[in-house]
Structure prediction request, 160 residues.
Amino acid sequence: MPSEPRVSLMCQACFRWRDYRLSALPPEHACEKCGLKAPVSAEGRRTEVGAVKMCFACGCGHLYVEKDFSRAVGCLVILVAAALFLVFSQSQGALFILLGAAVVDAVVYWLVGRRTICYRCLAEHRCFPLNPEHGAYELGVASRFSNDAQKKGGQPRDQA
Prediction:
């Protein structure tokens, strides 16, 4: 059963993240840390089937889709598999450790959903139907918005 759509917004001043359920999305995002307020709206920013058409935070139409999985957890799985492989490298079970890690990776890949992310403000839109107009991350598109992020010092949550 899919969970309720959610939006994660980053304060553009202090970079603190805040999650909202779509049903409880306020008309403006007020940062708990610094008090900066920014308008938020889902009205007119979704397709007829409910997919995200424009960012709810900044209204930007440049969005991309990626797997909704923590990079830190992914790296931990790889490090544990590598460590176990090195510990058992002298036995025949070492190859089964790598095979097991590959199977776990494949299962997680198919089970984990996708999130839509705004290139401009990095807002994350989760559990919405996918919009076929939004593809994978493109460096060329991201470079158009990189000056904004560098000036503000922002970065995605998994890299913070």
Q: What stands out?
A: The longest helix spans residues 93-111. The helical segments are 71-87, 93-111, 139-152. The chain has a mean pLDDT of 88.
